[in-house]
Amino acid sequence: MSQLVEIDHLCKHYPLGKRLFHRSDVVRAVEDVTLRISAGQNLGLVGESGCGKSTLGRAVLRLTEPTSGQIRLDGVDVTALTGRELVAFRRHAQMIFQDPYGSLNPRMTVRQTLTEPLRIHGLCKDHVAEQQRIVELVGQVGLPEASLDRYPHEFSGGQRQRIVIARALAVDPKLVVADEPVSALDVSIQAQIVNLLRDVQEKKGLTYLFISHDLKVVQHLCDQVAVMYLGRIVEQAATKTLFDRPLHPYTQALIAAIPRPPDAPSLADVSLSGTMTHYRPRALLLGGDPPSLLSPPTGCAFHPRCRRYEEAGRPAVCRSERPPLVQISVASAASAPSLVACHLQTHGQNLGQPG
Amino acid sequence: MATSPLLHIRDLSISFRSGPPKSERFLRAVDRISLRVPQQTSVGIVGESGSGKSVTALSILRLLPEPPARIDDGQILYSGARGSISDGERHALSAQSTDLLSLSGRELEKLRGNRIAMVFQEPMTALNPVYPVGDQVAEALRAHRQISRKQSMSEAAALLDLVGIPDASRRAKDYPHQLSGGQRQRVMIAMALCCQPDLLIADEPTTALDVTTQAQILDLLGRLQAELGMALLLISHDLGVVSEVCAIVAVMYAGQIVEQAGGHALFRSPRHPYTAGLLQAVPRLHGGRARLQEIPGRVPRLDEMPSGCRFADRCPKAAARCREEAPTLRVIDGDEGDDSRAHFVRCHFPLDPLGSLGSLAAQKGIA
Q1: Over the stretch B65-103, which tens digit does the pLDDT of each residue have?
Q2: Nearest Cα residue to A235 out of A151, A328, A144
């Protein structure tokens, strides 16, 4: 399996409030991320807001400049590209943003929006070919041809997202970074867009880097999942493995947090006080909020919220040493290896009961 | 349980003015909604954007700007305080039940935040950015009760503690921007709980939050509802969220309630094609990667509501009758008087109980 995207030790730091004679604080939005995406294998990037998943996605396309590290797309070092080469590179990698209201120019018709990338990259030799291509594009995303000369405000949210997808497809990219593409949409429309993303992939053979906080959608659409916490990847595995047997306590908490309907009318339906509720206390509820990126906890960044750390009797190593991302299972033909960054997982025996 | 419900919305219709002056017209956003919220019970309203769920919620406390909104018809009956009645509202609630739509502004003030409280979606805009959060909670306390500043501050800290803000007396001095989204929402809930309301209306309280924080807030709402014995009206677009907390769930579509049942029955065995469609449109955990079931098309616009069933154009089971004759909301299961057991549906051809769609959904592991 060829590697489409290879990210090595990528960092993105934002300096805060530069002051003379003071060392300025640094927000380490993305810290030492190493990631591989195989061609045709969608990677889902999940985590709470502020964990750096969007920054990572944008850095891959060089929409933000990485502070250090290397990104290669199809063997080409993206981090070294400048000027014209960078423009040409964007033909191969496109982005779909969350907000279809903000990412379309309100003063351009759909036709103009779709023509622009074709012209920039000189993909059509004449006007006729260009128009043909545009008609083909709107057809692919399920919009009527009549919509070509309309403006974004004339469309609903779901239709706008279709236009954004068509624009990304215009240049026949190899990689599409989709940053929360369905989060702003209604449930019934979400399903339409998720299906569309899938159809497009089957037809075009492209690869998604799919950024979302919605684990259910990620599970549905992605082959691999990487979980980020405070700028670092804490677990990465094939989707099925990750959801069936999450290893990192943070991943376990994320999965447990997904709302799910009650199994059966439980005793809690009518409690002692006569209160009618379906409320059932949850077993794996994650307490607190993610800590500040300005002063991340020492050792494992997750340890202040980690249930297993408490259960294991607060081993000192969790506080003092940052757990490396280690390979847990061997890569097989069917799936990539599982990686996890957790002391309790890697040498749990020595630290007590890993659970 | 034949006691009168705490809140009884009866045939409520709300329109919005649209178009330029002189040639204006009124478009109906909520069409003859009826809903009961029994004492101490959690009730959920689910619907997509534009279904009228938030408009319904806002109308209960008369928070809709009128105009452009106009309440055309209906009653919102509120039946008095459970337990001890505190100072403020005694005269407003002397009668058995009060129609909130007939109250004067002053009488409404007595109810708002006092007997009926509300939590909104965006905690950042709902809090004043230039005052510490503790002061804001204390101010709400003083607005409703004759207590000293000092006492209000200590009660505010106690409330912040109740909603799970760690180190509450110190965090009370923080400004909203110093708190995370989840904590701000907790502050909003603390403010809403000031007067131990009989009813807490939560309009999309977790939409702006992370999954983990959402779980915390839902857990908090569920716990508070059970512990304080208040009723909860939870508005959300997310079936999962509502099903987790609510004993009774109503599904709204295009301004109408299309299905209502006990939370469990609704998710186990949806009878309206729209509810079933919504449940199948969401990918399930461990649900495999089969193509998602889409609901084709979109919600009809307010000015082009079909005269028949409003869902007919998107419905896989629609027949000629559906386009001609608007279905009414009727009981198809259980006793009409007992909301937690009754199953209402607005459909000429409801799905079989745990029928084709239902069992399919069950197989896919909804529950």
Answers
A1: 888 888 888 989 888 754 444 444 444 444 468 888 888
A2: A328
Nearest Cα to A224, choosing from A41, A70, A35, A46? A41
What was the ipTM of the complex prediction? 0.77
Helix/strand/coil for B196 = coil
> What's domain B7-246's architecture?
3-Layer(aba) Sandwich (3.40)
Measured CA to CA, the distance from residue A184 to residue A189 in angstroms comes to 10
Q: What is the full DSSP assignment across B116-161?
A: EEEE-S-HHHHS-TTS-HHHHHHHHHHHHS---HHHHHHHHHHHHH
Q: In the structure, what pLDDT confidence band is assigned to residue B364 with cuts at 50, 70 and 90? A: very low
- A3-222 has CATH 3.40.50.300 classification: yes
Residues of B whose CB is below 8 A from A49: 181, 210
Q: Write down the pLDDT at residue B103.
A: 82
Interface test with A, best of B206, B291, B292 (most A CBs within 10 A): B292
Report the residue of chain B nearest A219, measured CA to CA: B285
Question: What value, to the nearest 5°, has the Cα angle with vertex A220 and ends B215 and B182?
Answer: 20
Q: How far is A346 from chain B (nearest CA, A)?
A: 25
pTM of the predicted model as reported, rounded to 2 decimal places: 0.82
Q: Is the pLDDT of residue A264 over 80?
A: no
A63 in contact with B, Cβ within 8 Å: no
Q: Does B215 touch chain A (CB under 8 A)?
A: yes
d(CA A260, CA A216): 11
Domain boundaries, chain B: 7-246, 253-297+307-363
Residue of B nearest to A266 (CA): B264
DSSP string covering A186-224 = -HHHHHHHHHHHHHHHHHH--EEEEE-S-HHHHHHH-SE
**Structure token digits, residue A200:** 């497009």
Q: Is A158 on the interface with B (CB under 8 A)?
A: yes
> In chain A, where are the structural domains located?
3-222, 247-257+280-351
Q: Cβ contact (<8 Å) for A220 and B295?
A: no
Q: Could you report the per-residue pLDDT of B139-192, keeping only the tens digit for each? A: 888 888 888 888 889 889 988 988 888 888 888 888 888 888 888 888 888 888
Nearest to A254 among B212, B287, B366 (CB): B212
